[in-house]
């Protein structure tokens, strides 16, 4: 989530709720040919669900939720403490539940912080990548019980920069992404940045080694396919717009818990960028040429090799000429399923250099790439709201959505989106090809939501308010509305 017109307030509003309770009232393939009973699932191959009730304002002024749902504050930057005694770092971002047992859940969480921040991730020996950046980005690991109570928090990796999102691995770790292209300068940075790192949740293992095979650019998020042979990655960058990438393993190779050794080699496997092909077989230059008129229409995809994935002299996205690949403003959240992978474009504002002159402004696009069909489909589309983009509060606040960012798939197959828009920020429930409902609203400030992730048992939705940095555990009758 790079800082631009939708930047969040970096100063927290006063009066944040303290730690405690507050009460306020398998994904089907998009190319599936088998008919679906309308009586069970509605008109199409996607799951549908009951509309969520209206949001009720929180008397504590933190989180509006539907009746029957409640939240608990798990961590609060500067207030809760790490096991080492330092305060919880700020700017919570991408998060995953990476394992769970009968005692609770374990979260790994990014902190999107630049160098030497007063509430940066402290450099704990054994976890440090670049000592010169000081207390900066990185990841913390949080142990919680089944009710979301914090049982301890510690550092998983430090000495990295602007850790934005990432993705969980099938073997129970987290791959954290640096959203930067900063290179070593001999003083404030001793090493190049813009890499993916693997982070462990056991409190003992740490290998702060860049996975150079996945490229060096402004990484946002990633997902590993179930065949363990591909990793799909997004790039949030401008001038020119970023790309959507695929890393492919060498023939016969399967990703595993030991793959960080191999992925540290920048020449291991193949890195390619996506090209969405039009009816003439040529790449569509930017996703902004497609609109809701193409909702659910499959487009063929080609993958174009990256020449220098480490971007030694020319950044990766600048290595492609016009007409080779498909660019997009703010490629953000990525989440994989058995059949394919979702990827989000947050917005493309009219009248800016990041929107093609003849492109169509929008306030959010969610795509699904189908592994077998090798096609991509637009499954959710938010048209541009000119009034909302001026920052004015919408009259009908909980119907007007913009700026989807992080995405996750619920245990019942629908989507949860975190808004990074103007005016109010929401957590959204979205059915691909269908309706979107607000399931939470930030009442504290205008900060974005980040890192939505469900516990495997479907009981708890964890989500963050990025600024000042608050992790929330939301419980309630999820199955009634999503199941």
Primary descriptors:
nine-stranded antiparallel β-sheet; about 475 residues; globular; single chain; mainly beta
What does this structure look like?
The protein is globular, with a radius of gyration of 21 Å. The N terminus is likely disordered. With about 475 residues, it is mainly beta. About 55% of the residues are buried. The strands form five sheets. It has a nine-stranded antiparallel β-sheet with strand order 12-13-14-15-16-20-19-18-17, with no helix packed on it.
List low-confidence stretches.
1-44
Mean pLDDT level: 88
Percent in strands: 35-45%
How many extended strands? 27
**Terminus-to-terminus distance:** 30 Å
Order of strands across the widest beta sheet? 12-13-14-15-16-20-19-18-17
Shape: globular
Q: Roughly how much helix do the residues carry, as a percent range? A: under 10%
* Largest sheet properties: 9 strands, antiparallel
Individual helix count? 4
What structural class results from the helix and strand content?
A: mainly beta
List the helices and strands and how they pair.
Blueprint: E1 21-24, H1 38-41, E2 55-56, E3 63-66, E4 69-76, E5 92-101, E6 104-111, E7 137-144, E8 150-160, E9 163-168, E10 174-178, E11 196-199, E12 219-224, E13 230-235, E14 244-248, H2 260-263, E15 270-276, E16 299-305, E17 331-336, E18 340-345, E19 362-370, E20 375-383, H3 386-389, E21 404-409, E22 415-419, E23 426-430, E24 436-442, E25 449-454, E26 460-465, E27 470-475, H4 478-482
Antiparallel strand pairs: 1-4, 2-3, 3-24, 4-27, 5-6, 6-7, 7-8, 9-10, 10-11, 12-13, 13-14, 14-15, 15-16, 16-20, 17-18, 18-19, 19-20, 21-22, 22-23, 23-24, 25-26, 26-27
């Amino acid at each position: 989530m790079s800082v631009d017109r939708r930047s969040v307030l970096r100063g927290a509003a006063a009066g944040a709720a303290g730690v405690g309770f507050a009460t306020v009232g398998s994904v089907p393939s998009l190319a599936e040919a088998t008919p679906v009973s309308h009586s069970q699932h509605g008109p199409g191959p996607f799951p549908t669900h009951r509309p969520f009730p209206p949001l009720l304002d929180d008397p504590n002024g933190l989180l509006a939720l539907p009746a029957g749902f409640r939240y608990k504050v798990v961590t609060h930057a500067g207030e809760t403490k790490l096991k080492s005694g330092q305060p919880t770092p700020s700017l919570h971002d991408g998060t995953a539940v990476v394992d769970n047992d009968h005692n609770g859940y374990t979260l790994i969480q990014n902190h999107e912080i630049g160098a030497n921040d007063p509430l940066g991730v402290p450099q704990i020996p054994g976890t440090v990548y670049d000592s010169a950046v000081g207390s900066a980005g990185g990841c913390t690991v949080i142990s919680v019980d089944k009710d979301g109570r914090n049982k301890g928090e510690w550092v998983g990796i430090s000495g990295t920069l602007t850790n934005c999102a990432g993705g969980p691995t099938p073997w129970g770790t987290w791959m954290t992404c640096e959203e930067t292209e900063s290179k070593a300068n001999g003083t404030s940075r001793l090493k190049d940045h813009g890499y993916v790192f693997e982070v462990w949740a056991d409190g003992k293992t740490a290998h702060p080694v860049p996975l150079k095979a996945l490229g060096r650019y402004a990484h946002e998020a990633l997902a590993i396919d179930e065949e363990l042979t591909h990793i799909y990655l997004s790039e949030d960058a401008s001038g020119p717009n970023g790309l959507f990438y695929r890393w492919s393993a060498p023939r016969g190779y399967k990703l595993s818990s030991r793959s960080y050794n191999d992925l540290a080699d920048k020449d291991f496997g193949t890195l390619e960028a996506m090209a969405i092909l039009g009816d003439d077989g040529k790449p569509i230059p930017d996703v902004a040429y497609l609109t809701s008129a193409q909702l659910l229409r499959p487009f063929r995809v080609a993958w174009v090799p990256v020449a220098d994935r480490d971007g030694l002299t020319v950044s990766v996205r600048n290595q492609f000429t016009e007409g080779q690949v498909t660019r997009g403003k703010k490629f953000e959240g990525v989440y994989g399923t058995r059949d394919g992978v979702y990827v989000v474009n947050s917005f493309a504002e009219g009248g800016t250099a990041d929107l093609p002159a003849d492109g169509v402004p929008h306030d959010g696009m969610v795509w699904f790439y189908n592994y077998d069909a090798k096609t991509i489909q637009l499954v959710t589309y938010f048209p541009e709201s000119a009034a909302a983009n001026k920052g004015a509060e919408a009259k009908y606040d909980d119907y007007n959505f913009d700026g989807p960012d992080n995405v996750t798939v619920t245990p019942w197959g629908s989507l949860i989106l975190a808004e990074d828009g103007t005016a109010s920020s929401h957590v959204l429930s979205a059915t691909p090809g269908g309706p979107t409902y607000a399931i939470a609203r930030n009442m504290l400030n205008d900060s974005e939501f980040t890192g939505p992730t469900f516990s495997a048992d479907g009981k708890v939705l964890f989500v963050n308010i990025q600024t000042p940095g608050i992790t929330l555990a939301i419980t309630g009758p999820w199955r009634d509305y999503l199941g």
